[in-house]
Amino acid sequence: MMNSIPYGRQHIDQEDIDAVVSTLQSDFLTQGPIVKQFEDQFSAYVGAKHAVAVSNATAGLHLANLALGLKKGDRIITTSITFAATANSARYCGAEVWFADINPDTYLLSLESTRNLIESKPKGFFKGIIPVDFAGLPVNMEAFRALADENDLWLIEDACHAPGGYFIDAKGEQQMCGNGNYADIGIFSFHPVKHIACGEGGMITTNSDELYHKLVTLRTHGITKAAMSENHGGWFYEMQQLGFNYRLTDIQSALGITQLAKNHKGVVRRNEIAKKYKQAFKDKIKYQDLPEGFYNAHHLFVIEVEQRKALYDFLRTKNIYAQIHYIPIHTMPYYKQIGYEGADLKHAENYYSKCISLPMYPTLSETEQDYIINTIFEFLDE
């Protein structure tokens, strides 16, 4: 039998190891120069003016909401087909989370469903929208920006699945996920199953100087040496607001820099894998749609099948460890308790009943992928 094949896997090579060892032997393990180097290289990669490295993407989402002024009693809109952190980050601020449905073909937050939800309430009812570049497929942030502007809403792009993804806007310009041209803030994740592995870690991107300074201050306890009300000497600093310790270390940043340098090649390989899956499944098995002018970074490759649990169990007997992304957030016990039971999200719930994520990572071999495809058809032909 084939060796174990997970749905996602990091790839650490000698260059990564050498970078980490070099940092371990340096003067700074944290709060040193490597963090800023990583931030600068990442902002250049996605095309944003600023980047703020954080301990994980959940921390990044939390800080993004805070920087945009989200508070108790406010309301935001997001998708239920995402990891819990997207919604939880607003709850940390005391805000309500309202879910709009997904597009049944792209699996992304539906613009139409979001518009209908906004227009069903008085103006000012909602404060912001958090679309998610699910599986690596970019949301049309240009369209969401127009909707947000019509209703005085801010926009956070949860791009955790999508470093290297992009879409072509109405002007014919390439818009990288998280570049800040349409969203106020972008969020990325460096969890090992994602494109760029730092162990844990995240990045916030923005083109706003004002938001950048808020984010940097909130990341480090609310402490700053800028614009102080008094100054007793070179050691002096002020805690001007209640912040958090959401820093990323130099050790993780060193790994992030070497991983980032390989991301373009990795995304190209992910698309080769996706192409092979699509060729095998075309007209036989439904998979995520790719609209014209969009480039999927492919954190995931998701298919829909009627006998999902049976396929999931069968694949495991063959050492193929597929996964489910995601259990709809509004069905979680916590969200049911605060009033989301019975939410009308038929496309999200239908998608969840059939979805399964197949192995997708750059080091997946041709032989392994052939084995996965053949095993799926073996199951379907039974």
List the helices and strands and how they pair.
Elements: E1 5-6, H1 14-24, H2 33-46, E2 50-54, H3 57-67, E3 75-79, H4 84-92, E4 96-100, H5 111-119, E5 128-130, H6 141-150, E6 154-158, E7 166-168, E8 174-176, E9 185-189, E10 202-206, H7 209-219, E11 223-224, E12 238-239, H8 250-261, H9 263-281, E13 286-287, E14 294-295, E15 301-304, H10 308-317, E16 320-321, H11 333-340, H12 346-354, E17 355-358, H13 366-380
Helix pairs in contact: 1-8, 2-8, 3-4, 3-7
Would you give an account of this structure?
The protein is α/β, with parallel strands linked by helices. It has helices at 14-24, 33-46, 57-67, 84-92, 111-119, 141-150, 209-219, 250-261, 263-281, 308-317, 333-340, 346-354, 366-380, and strands at residues 5-6, 50-54, 75-79, 96-100, 128-130, 154-158, 166-168, 174-176, 185-189, 202-206, 223-224, 238-239, 286-287, 294-295, 301-304, 320-321, 355-358. It has a seven-stranded mixed β-sheet, sandwiched between helices. It is globular, with a radius of gyration of 21 Å.
Average residue pLDDT: 97
Shape: globular
Per CATH, the superfamily of the largest domain is Type I PLP-dependent aspartate aminotransferase-like (Major domain)
The name of the CATH architecture of the largest domain is 3-Layer(aba) Sandwich
List the keywords.
382 residues, Aspartate Aminotransferase, domain 2, Aspartate Aminotransferase, domain 1, 17 strands, 15% strand, globular
